[in-house]
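Example A, followed by Example B.
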Amino acid sequence: MISILKINWYYTQLIKIYMQQLHPIMLVGTGSDVGKSWITTAICRWLQQRGYHPAPFKAQNMSLNSFSTPDDLEIGRAQAVQAAACGIAPSVEMNPILLKPSSVNKSQIVLHGKPIGDQTAQEYFLGDNKKRLFEAAKQSFYRLASKYNPVVMEGAGSISELNLKHRDIVNMRMAKAANACVYLVADIDRGGVFGSVYGTIALLEPWERKLIKGIIINKFRGDARLFIDGKKKLEELTGVPVLGVLPYVKDISIEEEDSVALNYRATKAVENKLNIAVVRLHYMSNYTDFQSLEQEPLINVYYTRSAQEINKADVVILPGSKNTIADLIALKKEGLDLIIKKQYQHVPIIGICGGYQMLGKTISDPFLVEGTATLEQGIGLFDIETTLSKIKKTTQCNFYYKNSNTLCQGYEIHMGKTQVPKNKHLNIINGVQEGYFDGSKSWGTYLHGIFDNQEVVTELLQLKFPDAKPQDYIAFKALQFDKLATWIDENLEMETILKNSRNVC
C-alpha cells in the first residue's frame, strides 16, 4: 500500500512543477538542417515525460509540408509533430506565419492559418509588412505562453545573416521579445564546426550574445570523449558553455519538413520488397504522407524522376504539389506522363491531392491561382475534372476507405474542386463521397495522411505479400518520441537548461 504521506508528497511535487513558470527554451542554428527541429521535438517530449506542460513555437516557417489543425487552420508540419510529442493538439499559435514556395521566386503567405496572398522573396524580405507580421507572431507567442509551460521555440536557418537579421521575425528578435534562453545548435557532421560556431557568435550584437546560454553540438559520429578538447576550445573561444554533444542516430524516425531531407531518401527500386515509386515533383508538398510507408520492412519507398526507375515500381504515387499545373507541364516535357500511362496498364497508380488532380482529364484555373495558364490537359487516366479556386480547404476528417467499416483519419489542404462520376468515389466522409477509384487498382484522393491508416497499408502490402500486416503507426510514432527523449536525457545537460529557464535570461 502507498502511504498517504507519499501520495501527498507526489502531488506536492506536481503542484510545484505547474506553479513554476519557466522562461522559454529556444533552439537556433548556425545554419539550416543542423537538427533544430529534432532537438526541439526531443526537449518537448522530455519535458512532457517529467510532468511539465510544454508547447512548441516557430514564428515563421518556410515549408511545403503543412498540417490542418482541429479548427481547420494550416500550420507547418514540424510544429504539428512537436505538438504530438507534447501530447497536445496542434494550434495555429504554434506557427503563426507559414511560407509555402509556389514558384522559383514566389511564396504563398499563410497568416494565422489562412493564406493572405503571394509575394516574391524581395517583396517579403524587404517589404514593410514584416512589421505587421512580427507583431502578429509576438501576439501568438504571448497567447501560447499563457496556456503552456514552458514554450519550446525554434529558430530558422542561421542567426547571423547580416543582410537580413535586422528584419528577422523568427530568430534573435523573437527570442528577445519572448525573453527566451537561447541555445545554438551546430552540425559537426558537415565539418567546420569551430568556424561555424565561433563565426556565428562573433557576428552577433552584444544584446544577442547575452541571450545565448549554451552550445549544442549535433550529429557527432564516434566516441564523444574524443571531443573533450574540442569542447574546451569552443568554450574558450566563445565564452559560452557546450551543454551537449549529441550522437548521430539512425534508429530514430521523425517526420521532417525540410526539403533537404529528401536528398537522403532512396532513389531506386530494390529486390524482394514492394517497390513504391513517388514521382519527385519540383513543388512536391507533404511528402511526409509517405513516412509511414518508409517504416514498413517489406516496403521500399523511393523518390525519382527516372523513367527507368518508375518502370520498375510495383506502385506509382503522384504526390501533392504547391503548383500542380507547373508540375504537370514539367512531367509532360520530360515524357513522364507517357511513362505513367504505360505503367497504368500493369500496376496501381495513386494520386494524392495535386497528384490526384493531375491524373484527371483537365485542370482549369479561372482565377489564375497558380500562374498564367487557365486550362491544362491532365494525364487522362481518371474520369475527373478539376477547377482550382481562390479558397483553400483545410480540415481534419474521419473517413471510410473503399468498402471498409473501419474509421480512418486524414486531413485536407487544397485549393480546388474535382468533379467525379457517381459511384466512382474512393472514400466516404460524413456520408459524402470523396476521391476517385477506377474499380480496379488505381485511385486518387485529397486526403493527406491516408497511409497512416493500417487499412490502406494492408491493401498495398498484400499486393506482393498476401499474409503481411502493417505496424501500428501511431504506436510507432510514440516510441520514436520516447527514444528522442532518451537521446536528449543521456547527452544534453537538461538540468542546466531548466536552471537557466528558472532565472531571468
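Example B, a separate protein, is given below in the same form.
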Amino acid sequence: MRRRWRNSVVRAAVVRRQIVLAWLGPALALLFPSDPALAHTVGRGFVMLLPTNYYFAGGGLAVAVTFLVLLVLPAPVLRRGFAVRRNFVRPSFPIGTGLSWASFLLFAVLIAAGLTGSRDPLVNPLPVTVWTVWWVGFTLITAVFGDIWRTVNPWTGPYRLLTRLTADQKRLPRRRLPGWIGYWPAVAGLFAFAWFELVDIAPEDPARLAKLASAYWVGTFVAMLLFGEERWRCRGEIFSVFFGFVARLAPLWRGSSGARSMTIAGVPGAQLVDTKVLPLSAGLFILLALASVSFDGLSKTFWWLSLIGVNPLEFPGRSAVTVANTIGLAVAFLALSVAFFGAVLAGNALAGGRVAARECLGRLVLSIMPIALGYHFAHYLTVLLVNGQYALIAASDPFATGADLLGIGNFQVTTSFLNHPAAVENIWQAQAAGIVLAHLVAVLVAHGIALDLYGNARRAALSQIPLALLMIAYTVFGLWLLATPTGS
C-alpha cells in the first residue's frame, strides 16, 4: 500500500479563479492590456491519483441503479416527494436595499485594492475574494439558501436611488427588451467569462481584474437604466441568471402567502421540476455552465496537453495555448449540446414522440443543473480549502500595509494536509461523491420532469433511457477528470 501511495502522482496546477466578468469579456480584455503578472498565482489544488477503476464502476453503477429503481417506483410516490413543502414566516425586519449598498461598497473597496494594492493575487484581496469566496463559496451557499444574489447584488441600491432622484424629472430612458433576444446576452457573457478564465493570459492580475470588473459593473448599470432592472437582471446579467438557476436546486426559497413573505422548504431540485419550458437560449446557458467547468478540468490534463502538442512537464505558458483552448472551449460546449439534444430527442422518439421537441428540450435541460453544481463543488473544493486561508489574510490586510483588521495575528496558510495520503484520499472521495450525488439528483429531476411531460410512467421511463446513458458516461468522465494527471 505504501508503495502504491509513493507512486501516486500529486500535481499542482495554476488555478484561475476569476470574477465572472462582462459579457464583453474578450473584447474588454483587449482594451486593458496588463503588465506581466507575478509568478505567485492562486493554486488550483492538488489531485492524487488513486486506483480509481472501482470508483468509475461504482459511480456509473450508482447512476444506473437509480434509473432502474425509478422504473419500478410508483409515479405518485415521486410526484408526492417533489411536492412536499413546509412554509415558515420570514423575519419582518426591514432590509430594503441596504445589503445591495453594502455589497456595492465592498465591491468599491475591492476595486481600489485591485488597482492600488499588491500585485500578488494571493495577497491582494480582489482575486481571492472573487475567485474563492464569491465564485466558489457564494455559489455553494446559493445552492442551499436560494437566490441571495437577488438581494445582495451591487446594482440594486444605486439603481433605485437614481430612479428616485429622477422621479420628478424626465423619466430615465427606457427601451423595451425584445422578446426574441431571450437569454442570448447572458449566454454570450458566460462564454466571455469562461474564455477570460480559461484562455486569457492573466485572469488573476489584480489591476486587470479590477478594470474588467469595473467595466462590467458600468455596462450592467447602463443596461439596467435602458431596459429596466428586473428585465436585464433576469435575462442579461450573467450572474443573476446563473445564481437564479443554481437557486432552483436549493431546499429553501422565497414565497408568499397573501401579504406575508414566506420561506419555503422542500426537496432539493423540486423547483427545477416545477419550472416551465425554457427558451433555447436559456437551455444553452445551462449547458455552457457545465461545459465550461468540464473543459476547465480537461484543459489541464496530460491527455489534452498532449493532444494539442504541449509537453505537460514543460508548460510554455497560456499564450502558447490560447488558440487551442479557445477552440477547445467552443468544441466542448458544442459537443455537450449536441449530445444532450440528441439524447433528449432520441428519448422522445422512444416514447412515441407525443411531446413537442421544444418542450422536451426546454424542460429536461434543467436536469443538467445538479450536474453543473456537482462539478463546481468537485472542481473547486481544494481551491476553497487552500485559497480560503489566503482570502482571510487578505481581508485582514487589504492594502498590504501591515494592518490586522481581523485580529488574526501571524496566521500562516497551511497546505500540509495535502501531503498526507489519508487527507488527500478523503478530499478525492468527497469530490467523487459530489459528482456521483449530482448525477443521482439529475436522474431524479429528469424523471420527475418526464412524468410531467408524458403523464405516463412507461413513456416517461422510455424517454429517459438515452439521457440516463449520457449521465452514466458523464459520471465516469467526471471521475476520470479528478483522477487523471494534470499539468499547468
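On Example B: Residues 1-48 have pLDDT under 50 and may be disordered.
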